[in-house]
Amino acid sequence: MKIAVLPGDGIGPEIIAQARRVLDVLRQDGLPIELEEAPLGGAGYDAYGVPYPEFTQKLCRAADAVLLGAVGGPQYDTLDRPLRPERGLLAIRKDLNLFANLRPAILYPELANASTLKPEVVSGLDIMIVRELTGDIYFGQPRGMGVNEQGEREAFNTMRYSESEVRRIAHVAFGIAMKRNKKLCSVDKANVLETTEFWKEIMIDVAREYPQVELSHMYVDNAAMQLVRNPKQFDVMVTGNIFGDILSDEASMLTGSIGMLPSASLDQNNKGLYEPSHGSAPDIAGKNLANPLATILSAAMMLRYTFGKEEAALRVENAVKTVLAQGYRTGDIFEAGCQKVSCSGMGDAVVAAL
Amino acid sequence: MKIAVLPGDGIGPEIIAQARRVLDVLRQDGLPIELEEAPLGGAGYDAYGVPYPEFTQKLCRAADAVLLGAVGGPQYDTLDRPLRPERGLLAIRKDLNLFANLRPAILYPELANASTLKPEVVSGLDIMIVRELTGDIYFGQPRGMGVNEQGEREAFNTMRYSESEVRRIAHVAFGIAMKRNKKLCSVDKANVLETTEFWKEIMIDVAREYPQVELSHMYVDNAAMQLVRNPKQFDVMVTGNIFGDILSDEASMLTGSIGMLPSASLDQNNKGLYEPSHGSAPDIAGKNLANPLATILSAAMMLRYTFGKEEAALRVENAVKTVLAQGYRTGDIFEAGCQKVSCSGMGDAVVAAL
Ligand SMILES: CC(C)[C@H](C(=O)O)[C@@H](O)C(=O)O
Ligand SMILES: CC(C)[C@H](C(=O)O)[C@@H](O)C(=O)O
Fold this sequence. Notes:
Two copies of one chain form a homodimer.
Chain A: E1 2-8, H1 12-28, E2 34-37, H2 42-48, H3 54-62, E3 65-70, H4 85-95, E4 100-106, H5 119-122, E5 126-132, E6 144-147, E7 153-162, H6 163-179, E8 183-188, H7 194-207, E9 214-219, H8 220-229, E10 236-239, H9 241-254, E11 262-266, E12 272-276, H10 293-305, H11 310-325, E13 328-329, E14 339-340, H12 343-353
Helix pairs in contact in A: 1-10, 1-12, 6-7, 8-9, 10-11, 11-12
One 3-isopropylmalic acid sits between chains A (86, 89-90, 245) and B (191-192, 221).
Subcellular location (chains A, B): Cytoplasm
Binding site for Mg(2+) (chains A, B): 221, 245, 249
Binding site for substrate (chains A, B): 93, 103, 131, 221
């Protein structure tokens, strides 16, 4: 179980440190876990002058899985665009062919108050968003700035999907739906965009291989609305890279506690990159205040999806549930009557619960 | 005041009928209003075989403003794509050069319970979303389906903005911000898409002409999240066609009562198309159940933006506030203790309040 660990920037090193403690416990209990660190994002730039250094690339290519903290920080905002931290993230996704991004939006009962939505609307919320991650307008060519036929400045990007790109993400989504409630909603804008009309056709075609799954379709604008109106109507959602970027962030915020939400980005062989859904939070970096639970839960997803260690994954997830039930809270999820803990304090609690 | 009236499909004719009654009152009180009807969408297809018939086009081109009900219905879903109702909508926007779509998201105090969000998060909500409506990936060329270099089927669309397209929507947005709280948030994905990097640069450039307006920038994924987390941080938002489609629907649903929300789509000279933000609701069509208030409020926007009749606009808006305060409610916004009325019953109440 070779794991490349990329602490990244901001709170990244702190939250990764706590996830490492959790993995250390599992190793002591017999899992053959090997960890090695490398810089990504701003840390990559600081060390090697680029956000995805060759050193990091080599390590990640050789590893079975990658555990990432977060990237980005204000000190990198004035760098040339290709050198900025988020380019490291886009580069590693593309380099490792991590086309399937899984982003759960789960409301923990203990944290129900954190949501800005009424309890009856979100209690029990458990959505899995499957976002295609290496195609679409993120990577489509041609792209750039130039001058149009009228001699005017313009800029353009290309939304593009090939059949195989859509097929493989469809299979991932149907596979996940099969393991859950067998309900899959594919999100498109087929009334306007040919790319997503094509997407929809292929979803319908792949659905024939999963007769038990009930496939539905929704326009992206309506999906953005329905997530607010009645999010519990959804179980698994699948969509392209840019719509998935928007909807998965919206869905995660429905829970009110994105400090709790992990994510996985998988390739064809379940090699994966695992990271919290939240960002690098430069404002609280280095202060031992961050919530490490999303990173710890990302490690649990890694145990499940890349290594097939369902039992170990559940053990970690149950430890997180235990510490919530015990009332431990970092600042982002704190409420009166609970016990406020630091980032490492939360790590202590999880290790104890393990 | 020549107004082309396009009832459209579904509940369109019913809600338009009530808005006409409101305009009739204003005409009797002295406004030189002339109304003429034409079919659009499915109604256009039924009458002339196309969703935006020439008859309708001529009327709309000659008019000062267009009042639209809604388009679309299941009976048109199997038509060839170019014949479908929503193509009529896209065609009229492009034909009349209606590049500025204004979509308010306002929470009426009397309807605060309708929101799925907690009252303290949404009470007093009043956001104006300015969406560019005739450019972006909706209309960008090239687009279509084909076969790529690897011989595989693919589909593609082009996101594209020229400088003048961005400049003119920027001026509309800054102009509106000047009349409100002088806070404008431009939404982009400048960390990934050159088109929106270009958009952002031009926003910053235009901002120099509006030194009193505080311009901020936000990534679209974060905006989708912030609308859920703390929507009252926003006053005026401006964004491109596809992001605006998604975010304006999300924002309108925050109010819980999209049956109340009007919209305007303006050209360079304030000629405009006015329509409710909601759809054609085929399930309740013909039953006299629909909420006509969004359409009536759209007529008020028309009086304000196209005809500069602020007083008449306020008179209509105040009449709507009055009927809400009196407790009249159509089914979509009904709650215990209020008086349920039909579509025409709500029209009666508004006419009485006028
Ligand atoms: C940082 C950015 C490039 C990235 C994306 O848009 O994919 C982020 O928003 C995400 O969702 O992981
Ligand atoms: C019907 C559709 C083409 C349209 C759009 O996407 O613009 C609608 O969603 C809207 O927002 O008016």
